[in-house]
Amino acid sequence: MVEKGSVSIHFVAAALDGVLARGMEPAPVLRKAGIAPALLWQPGARVPVQSYAALLREVAQLLDDEFFGQDSRRMKVGSFALACLLALEGGGDLGGALDLLCRAYNTIFDDLRVSVRREGRRAALEIAPTRPGHTLPVFAVETLFVYIHGVACWLVRRRIAIEEACLPYAEPAHGAEYFVLFSTQLRFGQDQCRLWFDAALLSLPVAQDRRAARGFLNQAPESFLVKYRNPDGFARRVANLLRRRPPDEWPGAEDAAAALRCSPATLRRTLRQEGTSFQAIKDRLRLDLAKAALARPGLSVADIATQLGYAEPAAFNRAFRQWTGTTPARYRRASG
Q1: Cα–Cα distance between 81 and 261 in angstroms, integer?
Q2: Distance (Å, rounded) from C-alpha 328 to C-alpha 194?
Q3: Burial class (CB in 10 A: 0-12, 13-18, 19+), 142
Q4: Alpha-carbon radius of gyration of the chain
Q5: In this predicted model, what pLDDT tens digit does every residue of 253-297 receive, in sequence order?
Q6: pLDDT for 298-321, tens place per residue?
Q7: Secondary structure (3-state) at 68
Q8: Is the four-CA dihedral 270, 3, 231, 287 of positive or negative sign?
Q9: What is the DSSP letter of 118?
Q10: Is CB count within 10 Å lower at the N or C end of the chain?
Q11: Quick check: 92 and 121 in contact, CB under 8 A?
């Protein structure tokens, strides 16, 4: 949903479904949020995260529904803050806090139920319909997962890595967004709807307090639409190290560890604890550089591949398809 401070227009359009269902005109709401209505007809468009957050606030106020018409019962304005405070005050660790957050949501919604599933070394956030055969809206699943995951990361002050995302619907047109939204391990068309993560994280202590919650909630939903990052963490330090050099001069993990004055084992362990890896950071930076370069029509795909350190365009094409689900050429056409 969020990438380099921007949000796909797909999510903007979905957030307006409840407005349209009530026969309201979406253009005034978009303009209040600083979004040009014409962008809705540009599939590759993106909007600043601040504008998307403003849109969600506007829609919530207009509908008095913080779930934007995605459930048959309204989630009245203020419900999210109460649910977060319940989780914060009542849960000593992440597992307890998430259980309370799910209980709060389950008292609000009629069409779905959320829970934390524990299976051995893995745990999952799970969403299930309350009625057999009922199909949950895609935007409902996306939004609820983003909200709960964002709150969980904030509660423990660290990024919670999603090992695998299982979704109960076919891959949507904007499925490439899920690489950033959830995980690189995606399973569409599944019988269940779950985000899997390391169960050991459930024992992490809640590291926030009511004073911190005031700022978090005042800035919501922007405060959790952007994936949680520790500004002093190793992931940020590795990314900054790599950004200072062109991709074909990036150091390997051992040299990066030496530059950061730690052992390779410490670097691997700390990055894993922060929910990432050295390779994932390189992939993320290469994808950002690739998308920026593809926005420049004077550069060929072969030129971009060379800039990114690939020996041949075919290798770049394979990597880009793995990251986004599409080819560089198709991405360029869709974004043009």
Answers
A1: 42
A2: 30
A3: buried
A4: 21
A5: 999 999 999 999 999 888 876 667 898 888 888 888 888 888 888
A6: 889 999 999 999 989 999 998 888
A7: coil
A8: positive
A9: E
A10: C
A11: no
